């Protein structure tokens, strides 16, 4: 009886564990293949240190505390750049979304700035702000600004006109219209912008830290490159990936909580 | 009953379209007394929704006079409740928060009124549900409660049960009559369903299309609750239907088509 039940559950619908395992299948097999190839010397240990060597290097770095102090510095940079850029993006997105006049005033200039590649402004930022924290945070903020700005703007302009009519019939004040209608309606877009911004913040961080820095994960990597310490470079890559994934997961949890009213296709 | 609440005189309304000016309403005259239940019926394109939207203050650019308690309609507001064909609830708010909308649920008197209304529209147990979890009839009841919370002088309903199945629709008609008998809120109910018009209204206003104008106003003096199977109900139903057939003939000879 229990056997049959178990058979039905495995044959009928894949369990949660099976679905989670599906995502691990590809990276898992690549890791194993990599380790085997490296172990038998079929790929260069210099360019592709084996997963085991990388893990060793990770343990050394983390037990000496280097990894964590660098990670803390990097996280603070990414986060403050994200908060500065994303916050401004939200503010200006709301302003430009709500009022046609502010759109005419601000949007063309902002779109112009958007088109300037971040790398192109690095020399200027270094000249203006030195190689201290300001230039890095501002570089990250520039990247983080636009996804939130554009998506907030689009979310506000996408508010259903039918619901606007309802707000008029119910006698909403202008402020209530913004707080109770326009902003909630824009939340799905805003959250999308936040997720994109957060991803760009980590990218901007790497650019900033690889160019000129004496601390942070990016510095740790470029320093290791000079000494051809490839495992440390890999550790840096993995740490960036993990940090990015973690922050994205947190935002997704917030998103799910904020958007639990949504009735959409769940896959 | 007795006081004139809503007065419409010499109402004309035209729309500019690609093909030129189209007259949507011509010389509409209607006096609605306080506490009356008016149903407006007509084929699509007869301007019945336009008429309702003008009274609500949602459509402007008309000529003539439309007054509520003697004052010209200035714009939309809470004295004129409006129920749309779709429920138009805020998808991110629960049932009770949708009813309250911009009013604070934390205030004891708002809380009490909202609870009473939930009771009135029979939605107990669904206070915390989101609109996506409701059936069409339930969602429309929330919309009605939302309008009633503002104690409107007049409730305007634009084919509110048009998208519901026959059983739900019959149930909603009873619920609405129940509300009307308790609150005595003046109602104008637009529909294209003859049964519904005769079942609900004190008077049935028949509109004809192109241009939209009142063809007849038929008083329905059957006592409530009405039964759709009685002879007197069927007689009135035929009377309305006859008025309609003349509209159809007119349309055919007119060559305007649909």
UniProtKB/TrEMBL annotation, chain A:
Keywords: Cell membrane, Membrane, Transmembrane, Transmembrane helix, Transport
UniProt key word Transport: yes
Gene3D superfamilies with a match to the protein in the record: MetI-like (1.10.3720.10)
Localization terms from the record: Cell membrane
Gene Ontology terms: cellular component: plasma membrane
Keyword Ribonucleoprotein: no
Lipid bilayer topology: Multi-pass membrane protein
The name this protein goes by in its record: ABC transporter permease
Organism: Paenibacillus jilunlii
TrEMBL record, chain B:
Listed PROSITE patterns: ABC_TRANSPORTER_1, ABC_TRANSPORTER_2
Species of provenance: Paenibacillus jilunlii
One Pfam family of this chain: ABC_tran
Keywords: ATP-binding, Nucleotide-binding, Transport
Domain of life from the UniProt record: Bacteria
UniProt name for this protein: Sulfonate ABC transporter ATP-binding protein
A GO MF label: ATP hydrolysis activity
ABC transporter domain span: 6-236
């Amino acid at each position: 009886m229990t056997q049959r039940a178990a058979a039905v559950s495995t044959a009928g619908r894949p369990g949660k564990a099976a679905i989670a395992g599906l995502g691990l299948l590809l990276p898992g097999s690549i890791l194993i293949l990599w380790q085997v190839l490296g172990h038998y010397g079929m790929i260069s240990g210099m360019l592709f240190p084996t997963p085991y060597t990388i893990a060793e290097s990770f343990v050394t770095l983390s037990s000496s505390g280097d990894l964590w102090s660098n990670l803390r510095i990097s996280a603070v940079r990414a986060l403050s750049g994200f908060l500065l850029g994303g916050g401004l993006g939200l503010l200006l997105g709301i302003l430009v979304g709500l009022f046609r006049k502010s759109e005419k005033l601000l949007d063309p200039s902002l779109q112009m700035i958007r088109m300037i590649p971040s790398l192109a402004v690095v020399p200027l930022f270094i000249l203006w702000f030195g190689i201290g924290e300001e230039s890095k945070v501002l570089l990250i903020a520039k990247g983080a600004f636009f996804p939130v700005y554009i998506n907030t703007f689009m979310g506000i302009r996408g508010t259903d006109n039918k619901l606007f009519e309802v707000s008029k019939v119910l006698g909403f004040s202008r402020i209530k219209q913004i707080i109770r209608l326009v902003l909630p309606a824009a939340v799905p877009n805003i959250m999308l912008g936040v997720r994109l911004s957060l991803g760009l913040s980590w990218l901007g961080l790497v650019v900033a830290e690889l160019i000129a820095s004496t601390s942070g994960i990016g510095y740790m990597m470029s320093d290791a490159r000079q000494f051809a310490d490839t495992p440390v470079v890999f550790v840096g890559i993995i740490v960036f990936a993990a940090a990015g994934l973690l922050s994205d997961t947190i935002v997704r949890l917030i998103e799910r909580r904020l958007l639990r009213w949504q009735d959409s296709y769940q896959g | 009953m007795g006081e004139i609440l809503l007065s419409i005189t010499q109402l004309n309304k035209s729309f500019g379209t690609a093909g030129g000016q189209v007259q949507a309403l011509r010389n509409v005259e209607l006096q609605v007394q306080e506490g009356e239940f008016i149903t407006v019926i007509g084929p699509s394109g007869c301007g019945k929704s336009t008429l309702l939207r003008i009274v609500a203050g949602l459509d402007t650019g008309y000529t003539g006079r439309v007054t509520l308690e003697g004052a010209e309609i200035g714009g939309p507001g809470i004295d004129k409740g409006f129920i749309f064909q779709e429920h138009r609830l805020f998808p991110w708010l629960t049932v009770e928060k949708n009813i309250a909308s911009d009013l604070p649920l934390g205030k004891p008197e708002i809380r009490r009124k909202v609870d009473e209304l939930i009771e009135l529209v029979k939605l107990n147990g669904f206070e915390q549900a989101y609109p996506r979890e409701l059936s069409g009839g339930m969602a429309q009841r929330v919309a009605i409660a939302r309008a009633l919370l503002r104690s409107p002088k007049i409730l305007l309903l634009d084919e509110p049960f048009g998208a519901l199945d026959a059983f739900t629709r019959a149930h909603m008609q009873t619920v609405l009559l129940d509300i009307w008998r308790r609150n005595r809120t003046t109602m104008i109910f637009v529909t294209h369903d003859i049964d519904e018009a005769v079942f609900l209204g004190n008077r049935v206003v028949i509109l004809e299309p192109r241009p939209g104008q009142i063809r007849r106003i038929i008083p329905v003096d059957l006592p409530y609750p009405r039964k759709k199977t009685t002879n007197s109900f069927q007689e009135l139903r035929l009377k309305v239907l006859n008025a309609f057939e003349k509209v159809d003939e007119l349309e055919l000879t007119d060559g305007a088509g649909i």
